[in-house]
Amino acid sequence: MMSEYILEMRNITKLFPGVKALDNVNLKVKKGEIHALVGENGAGKSTLMNVLSGIYPYGTYSGDIAINGEVCKFRDVTDSEKKGIVIIHQELALIPYLSIGENLFLRNERSSHNIISWNKTYRDAAALLKKVNLSENPETLIKDIGVGKQQLVEIAKALAKDVKILILDEPTSALNDEDSDNLLNLLIELQKEGITSILISHKLNEVLKVSNNITVIRDGKTIETFENDENVSEDRIIKGMVGRELTNRFPSRKPKIGEVNFEVKNWTVFHPLIEGRKIIKDVNFKVHKGEIVGISGLMGSGRTELAMSIFGRSYGKHISGEIIKDGNKITVHNVRQAINHGIAYVTEDRKSAGLNLIDDIKSNIPLAKLMKISKRNIVDENKEIHVAEQYRKKLNIKSSSILQKTGNLSGGNQQKVVLSKWIFTDPDILILDEPTRGIDVGAKYEIYKIINDLADEGKSIIFISSELPEILGMCDRVYVFNEGRIVGELSREEASQESIMRCIMQSNREVV
Amino acid sequence: METVKNSGNKQITSIGQSIKDTIRNNIRQYAMLLALVAIMIFFQIATGGILLVPMNVANLILQNSYVFILAIGMTICILAGGNIDLSVGSVVAFIGAIAGTLIINMKYSIVPTIIICLLIGALIGIWQGFWIAYMRIPAFIVTLAGMLVFRGLTVTMLKGLTLSPFPEKFQQISAGFIPDVFGGFGTKLNITAIIVGLILAAIYLISEIKKRAERIKYNFDVLPLPIFIAQIVVVFAAIGIFTYWMAAYKGIPVILAIVGLLIIAYSFFTTKTVQGRYIYAMGGNEKAAKLSGIDTNKVLFFAYVNMAILAAFAGIAFTSRLNAASPQAGQNFELDAIASCFIGGASAYGGVGTVVGAIIGALVMGVLNNGMSILGVGSDMQMTVKGLVLLVAVAFDVISKKKSRS
């Protein structure tokens, strides 16, 4: 007997070292439907799809995947593709200097006896492009077409593999509205041809527009699956996404908020490469002494770009606007000046931009202000050891010794080294960009405590995060950030997961 | 210079653990030092004791002085981000041509010639450094271009001919010995060399004791006293043997004194100064270095200017030793220098390596060359062996790291 469901994922549990990424997740997708998968960043959506597509092979998770009722054990992506499962990642997997046609049939070449038939390649490519309503010459290079068209090429590539279940991970996050509409309409057309789609999206209006059923995932667990009928609203989905208890996940603190000591006015930043593209649009905000101010927004909304452009113009060009500290306008044209003015920026990507992973803890900590432990340009190694031991103790950095390489530390301890490095510069303003990303719950709590202590010392903290509970649990005031603009300012009392989400959704609608 | 650094608060870290970490972090250097000793012992036996005859030791140093100088500069380029400089062999030849033209054809005296040569070296460095650091053209390509350009200019300048001979005084740079001002007490040994050896030993002893006292004051852990004493005895023995070699022949070669000073100065610069730390930080993670306020362009620029100045210096030394300015001079020198760095523990991706390591690497290659020459092994086989040693040294490092991680 054929199952009603083309895909069933039953009791999927996936462990990462120290983290339960998926906890008994169930997902049932009917044949020929568009099924939306929603949840916050880090809820486990992408992990679930990686399990499905064989990126995490059979045996690294527990539970069953059944396609048309038959249990499958995928060893890799090739296995899952044989069953017609194709995943299109947020980061497109196209090769820029190959043509559309070459990309379409990559690993699936039109050839006989291992020799590529270019005529067949381009003839078949043209047919596929027609299916996805893309009028481009298949010999055009990928780098010469826009992101929207590239997304369509990805779908055409999936069709070339005879796709049965198409998984799209945030397909419209980089698209403008026209391209988004195009793509969604295409999904509906493909549905008519019998192709099942799983759509992962933050844009709830899109989810409401195209999906038949919606599954909500939160903290690695399936919360609910419901039919998308007229009664379902965005608020209904948000409630499912965020309804979690917040007890004891954040250390308590009595804020002692002083006067304003940091202000950014009319801040506008352009893309460093694409001429004329505004990334940050006329942003104004201020921070008080001893205050933790949240900047809440989704990934890709421009939060990191905002922070880095303030931090010594580390991002962007044609930057305009003012930075005011303690009532005086300051010039911050490079990182050195920023550090000297008491600004610190803890990057969201500690591995690629925060630490020298091949060097030890001792050398990483004082790097941003080596002069502090140097005399006449010569580093005092005794002081260096002293400083390192001090921070190792104070921030409880778990390591074999201060000579352990930072690359061998766990994520939480790496983050503590990065924090030490910036606390060492004696900053007045700390910009923390996703300070707890990829860190287990216990270490998160420790890092929250460190942040609270810093605020209590009278430092101003700018806390950037895409995790709403964290913003709500930690911040005294919240700016909501979306598409390079501040779209809302909420006091601690006003701020809630719903109110923040509403600000973002509202601004999305305004742009439409 | 090779001291075991150890650290850690007594309450938190066991001494054993921090020593373990130190060894793990420098495994290739220690391994190569042992390999060097093993190779020396092997050839000492194989050549029937000729290798370590004082005269041959002096020869070995004179023969390889230019590699030492180039390896120091190359270490800094590699540290700053795994970049190599392919142009140094041609720069050596080019500077030789300039020195020859100035001294032999235009009758310049030696000091102004050396100053002009070093200035031209600096200009070459500024030229290449500009393209590499500020225009961000891969160093491989810029210095490959430099390799062709400066070789071409050398041949043009010398019109394809060899200029020779240089005045006696110029030859003394790489062939001379420091005069034995204290000599003549009825001994054949060079007294100056012995005095220098004693001074070095004293400086080492005092600095080690001072360092230890400071660590105890700060309550950091230190090596147990017996091991500390053993370490000093080993270093004393090394200094003693080396002093004997020098004293038993003609004393300290001028070029050894210069190279020695360069090694000490650059070792100090890379490990103890703020700018030295910046080089390591940049090589380890350029993005993180930039976000820590380090002007990474400037660091890279400096590395190449410095390399070219040292290449000019090596050019002077080599021309003096050859006693000729030849259009063919310096061929493959860049490869010797690069190989020395990698044998001595530098990482091809940057951020790891030491000046001392590169010198050990250069010595390994030098001893191999010299030992095989004494044994009558042809230069073809020598090349093959050197190539394999390079591969084995790096493979050993990569594999031992993989093991320690798993």
TrEMBL record, chain A:
Key word Ubl conjugation present in the record? no
Membrane topology, as annotated, equals: Peripheral membrane protein
PROSITE patterns referenced in this protein's UniProt entry, alphabetically: ABC_TRANSPORTER_1 (PS00211), ABC_TRANSPORTER_2 (PS50893)
Q: What Gene Ontology cellular-component terms does the record carry?
A: plasma membrane
Q: What is its main location?
A: membrane
Give the subcellular location. Answer: Cell membrane
Q: Which UniProt keywords apply?
A: ATP-binding, Cell membrane, Membrane, Nucleotide-binding, Repeat, Sugar transport, Translocase, Transport
Gene Ontology MF term list? ATP binding; ATP hydrolysis activity
Per the database record, which ranges form the ABC transporter domain?
7-244, 264-508
Q: Which CDD domains match?
A: ABC_Carb_Monos_I, ABC_Carb_Monos_II
Instruction: State the NCBIfam families in the record.
Output: GguA (NF040905)
Could you identify this protein by its name?
Putative multiple sugar transport system ATP-binding protein
From TrEMBL, chain B:
Q: How does it sit in the membrane?
A: Multi-pass membrane protein
Q: CDD domains from the xrefs?
A: TM_PBP1_transp_AraH_like
Q: What GO CC terms are in its UniProt record?
A: plasma membrane
Instruction: Quote any Pfam family the record assigns.
Output: BPD_transp_2
Question: Which InterPro entries does the protein's record reference?
Answer: ABC_transp_permease
Q: GO terms for molecular function, please?
A: transmembrane transporter activity
Q: Does this UniProt record's set of keywords contain Membrane?
A: yes
User: Which parts form a coiled-coil structure per UniProt?
Assistant: none
Q: Where are the transmembrane segments?
A: 30-54, 60-79, 86-104, 110-130, 137-158, 189-206, 218-245, 251-269, 299-317, 337-363
User: What job does the chain carry out?
Assistant: Part of the binding-protein-dependent transport system for D-xylose. Probably responsible for the translocation of the substrate across the membrane.
What is the name of the protein in this document?
A: Xylose transport system permease protein XylH
